Amino acid sequence: MGKTYGDIFAMAFGPIVTVFVSHPEALQQLFTNTKEIEAPGELNRAAAPLIGNNGLLLLDGVRHKHRRKLLMPAFHGDRIRGYGDQICTLTEAIMSRQPIGQPFSAYAMLQAMTLQVILEVIFGFHAGEPRYAQLKQLLPTLMNFARSPGVEIAFSLPALQQSWWSPWQQFHQLMEQFNQLIYAEIDHRRQHPDPTRTDILSELVVARDELGEPMDNQSIRDLFPSMLFAGRDAASSAIAWALYWIHRLPNVRDQVLQELDRLGNSADPLSIVQLPYLTAVCNESLRIYPTQIVTFPRRVESSIKLMGYELAPGTVIRGNIYLTHRRADLYPEPLQFKPERFLERQFSSYEFLPFGGGVRRCPGEVLALFEMKLVLATVLLRYHLELTDTATLRPQRRGVNFSPKGGLMMVSKNHRMGMRS
Length: 421
Hints:
49% helix, alpha+beta, 5-stranded mixed beta sheet
């Protein structure tokens, strides 16, 4: 598509025409010229039935900036470093359930693992608690149903959002169950405050909004769905693709294992996430299949010139991340998996942007990379895996990202004498 249409092209989706750009200079203008190009939440209104009216994607200005600021500590610095051992332990626990010699879906396994990380590590639910068990059972059904073709179409066509229309009615019922569980947990934590808790839900319960008032239950609830979908679907897709490339290319696998094995008994989470080749492998995997195919939409507020074209007020623009990451002028032989390209040069945030850019950039980017590296390292250190099929794995679209078609079937041959203990 990029070769056919160039650095900038327009596509019509019904009555709405969207301009797509893939050149780094255009992306820089898109993200930095915030006076003439805005990212209004109303352009993401179709997601409201899922994320609520107070989700980050629908907020603007001061409210958006404040809510985003509330979330950032959970995804950075000392906080995520404290999650390391938990992520490794959860990964080992779920991987240990895969029988030796029997094929399993690595993607399904990773979905279960990343969802458990979100529930336990980020939101502070614990095994044995009644709502933990209920959410763990409900969320996969809800999230998979929200990704089903019928419901995805209904998000864009409000006329289909009728209670008598069976798929939407079922989705609505699942959302009501989710809401009841979250509201009950919020009320419980308000009534039983625990100052030792550092999870994001507990912090939001005592947080103040941009006016200095306590956040109401709905505002807290509306911050959950985006994190759940990104934390499960985007994260599991990213890790699955990395597993695929590592096991498809023996030289890549050997170099990752050599780097991990050189850590010896110091293979702790902080040492692992600083490994240069493992980081390059993660980046190259995210280059080929980023967590977002396109950026969230922007709107032209006053006439601008972009890549030589005059764009009128009201024009909707998206950055095409997928095409940017496959530009041969940035990434020679762009369809080839070459981690070394990330060791040889530093790419700008307008050339490599797997988590989006500007004010709508994913706030969980640092945590996602942290988790990705630890899961890969834990699996590779402990297990000898193989792909069940050597044919090229094809992608399939799930929401705003690509997951491995067929679920990435793998088999565990035996245990390695890994470093974790």
